[in-house]
């Protein structure tokens, strides 16, 4: 019993470290943008909110929202599979997939910055970071995948 409890704690700590690393990658993306294109951090309200490529910005927004929703669906399916099959590895897989989908939202924002100098790119970063924050690992999911009921 003690070995199972240690395994749960070790797995949970690993999940928190992975989550934190993925969250910090978002901050690093912002640092890269600031170092290479600091002019996009100066908002110019005389420009249209959707920029010069409105259709592309809307398509990126739809894709970002789809990724956001899909991240929760994929995580839920993976966590359910982990509990059903009693495999903790599926909990880790679910967390990584969910955070990667949220990270993809921020990458869409980076594309908007570097390819189109879109000034409201930070909305994509805000959504990506918010998604990762919502995916903070919970010990209950690890426990549900490790003990037969």
Q: How many helices does DSSP assign?
A: 5
Question: Residue-averaged pLDDT, rounded?
Answer: 89
Helix content: over 70%
Number of strands: 0
Report the sheet-strand fraction.
Answer: under 5%
Largest sheet: none
| Distance linking N and C termini | 14 Å
Q: How would you sum up the global shape?
A: elongated
Radius of gyration: 18 Å
Which structural class best describes the helix and strand composition?
Answer: mainly alpha
Q: What does this protein look like?
A:
- It is a single chain.
- By secondary structure, the protein is an all-alpha fold.
- It has helices at 2-36, 54-85, 89-116, 122-134, 139-146.
- Helix 1 (2-36) runs parallel beside helix 3.
- The longest helix is centred in the first third of the chain and has 35 residues, at 2-36.
- The radius of gyration is 18 Å and the shape is elongated.
- The relative contact order is 0.19.
- The mean pLDDT is 89.
Topology at a glance:
Layout: H1 2-36, H2 54-85, H3 89-116, H4 122-134, H5 139-146
Helix pairs in contact: 1-3, 1-4, 1-5, 2-3, 2-4, 2-5, 3-4
